């Protein structure tokens, strides 16, 4: 059960912001935003930032979703992992077998070399914080400078997302 109660999506003083948040999420007010709405300015900024890192980059959908899934998995963030594994990963062409194989991704033949490099990068950023030259050099073989910056910010942001979700014990979406 979430540690912070959900804001009712029909809360009159927040109607405009709730409409904006729902519009960005296909008409749904996600549980994350039901909690973040306790601080409307945070909810609005979170949505804008999240939109930028997920929708306004040069990263392809699979790359983005593999990074998000791996960070969510490493941080034990069931809320984010469940949403992305069941909704966004299939839309990006990620198979259930690939989702199940994320733990052994570094050597798994289900992943392209570029995806193995990005998963190793996500592992290093999430578990070690410091990224070795060897891991970074493998990443650089597959991604340009812009993509590396975008991947780095995406991974960092989802470390924040997952830690907020875990700390507040967000309930999975119904």
Give descriptors for this structure.
65% helix; AhpD-like; mainly alpha; 174 residues; 9 helices
How would you describe the overall organization of this protein?
- With 174 residues, the chain is mainly α.
- The protein folds into 2 domains: 12-55, no CATH class; 61-168, AhpD-like (Up-down Bundle), CATH 1.20.1290.
- It is built from 9 helices and no strands.
- The protein has helices at 15-24, 31-36, 40-55, 61-74, 78-91, 96-100, 113-128, 133-140, 145-168.
- Helix 4 packs parallel to helix 7 (113-128), helix 7 packs antiparallel against helix 8 and helix 7 packs across helix 9 (145-168).
- The radius of gyration is 17 Å and the shape is elongated.
- 32% of the residues are buried.
Summarize the structure.
By secondary structure, the protein is mainly α. It contains 9 helices and no strands.
SSE layout and pairing:
Blueprint: H1 15-24, H2 31-36, H3 40-55, H4 61-74, H5 78-91, H6 96-100, H7 113-128, H8 133-140, H9 145-168
Helix pairs in contact: 4-5, 4-7, 4-9, 7-8, 7-9
Label the CATH architecture of the largest domain. Answer: Up-down Bundle
- Tally of alpha and pi helices: 9
CATH fold assignment of the largest domain: AhpD-like
Query: What is the total tally of β strands?
Result: 0
Largest beta-sheet details: none
Q: CATH superfamily membership of the largest domain, which one?
A: AhpD-like
Contiguous runs where pLDDT drops below 50 for at least 5 residues: none
Overall structural domain count = 2
Structural class: mainly alpha
What's the CATH class label of the largest domain?
Mainly Alpha
Mean pLDDT: 94
**How many angstroms separate the termini?**
13 Å
- How would the global form be characterised? elongated
The Rg value, from CA coordinates, equals 17 Å
Estimated helix fraction: 55-70%
N-to-C series of helices and strands: HHHHHHHHH
How much β-strand is present in the residues? under 5%
């Amino acid at each position: 059960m979430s540690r912070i109660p959900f804001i009712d999506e029909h809360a009159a003083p927040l109607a405009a912001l709730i409409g904006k948040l729902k519009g960005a999420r296909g008409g749904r007010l996600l549980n994350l935003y039901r909690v973040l709405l306790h601080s409307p300015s945070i909810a609005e900024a979170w949505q804008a930032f999240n939109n930028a890192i997920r929708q306004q980059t040069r990263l392809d959908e699979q790359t983005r979703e593999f990074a998000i899934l791996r960070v969510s998995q490493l941080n034990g963030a069931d809320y984010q992992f469940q949403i992305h594994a069941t909704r966004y990963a299939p839309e990006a062409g990620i198979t259930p077998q690939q989702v199940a194989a994320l733990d052994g991704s570094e050597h798994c033949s289900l992943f392209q070399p570029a995806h193995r490099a990005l998963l190793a990068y996500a592992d290093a950023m999430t578990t070690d914080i410091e990224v070795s030259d060897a891991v970074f050099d493998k990443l650089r073989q597959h991604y340009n400078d812009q993509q590396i910056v975008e991947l780095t910010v995406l991974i960092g942001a989802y470390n924040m997302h997952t830690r907020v979700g875990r700390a507040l014990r967000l309930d999975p979406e119904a």
